[in-house]
Amino acid sequence: MTQTFGAKSTTDEVLAGVNLTGKRVLVTGVSAGLGVETARTLAAHGASVTGTARDLDKARRALAAAGAEGIDLVEMDLASLASVREAADALNARGETFDLVIANAGVMATPLGHTADGFETQFGTNHLGHFVFINRIAGLIRDGGRLVNLSSAGHRYSDVDLDDPNFETTPYDPWLAYGRAKTANVLFAVEFDRRHKGRGVRAVAVHPGGIQTELSRHLDPGALEALIKQINESRQDGAPAFELKSIPQGAATSVWAGVVASADEVGGRYCEDCHVAGFSEGSELRAGVRAYALDPDNARALWAKSEELVGETFPA
User: DSSP secondary-structure letter at 11?
Assistant: First the structure.
């Protein structure tokens, strides 16, 4: 009988009894929070883990503090396509393949800014950086492997805007920008899944839940509390009040979708609280996925626009 997990399940509960010896995993953003916990728990269950981080010294300290030993590190700054390409080139030169890639790194609700390549910070870092990196190492994902993209319930704030991705004509709002980037993370998984499932490689997007990590460092004092109040005010009748998750609870859906769930169950889907989410078009901000985030035509259009923006084409 398949074990059922939920919002309060932790990484170790999800992976209880799972032996990952012989499996190779790549996790982006292993210098704090969910990335550290994801790397730790996968390594603890026998996987050989490679992590990327912008600041390798910070990553080493964070991993050591978490008891995550033996994590191989690769330097990569997702806000610089030169850095992304250099990291991808280094991994391709090694030629070591992966059973699972977890695109975990990201930023949230940043002030208006731009990446080294001139893209709006959140879209450029969360989506375009991963878009180039994952596509450049796609050949390293073994047949039958899996890609997990970390998205967020924040995708419900906005669809992508392919006419003005860098807020050149739209007034900038940090949560609107976050919504666009997180929707892009889902759409990227949808199209990557379509392009690679012929060789058994499946892609899935996940919402980890609300967790107090460094991701919230750009928020003004009191902003997180205000957001939680907004979420609770929007909840449907009878729904439990929103609660922040612990970091092990937050990383659980990533490892569930990457290791435990069946490929056909999660491929091309959006997951939360260790299950596949249903569609939700109401005002509730906490659960469910917007239809635009899983729309295949929208996914193909974003892919084409992303190729145009980064000046690189990735064949099916």
Answer: H
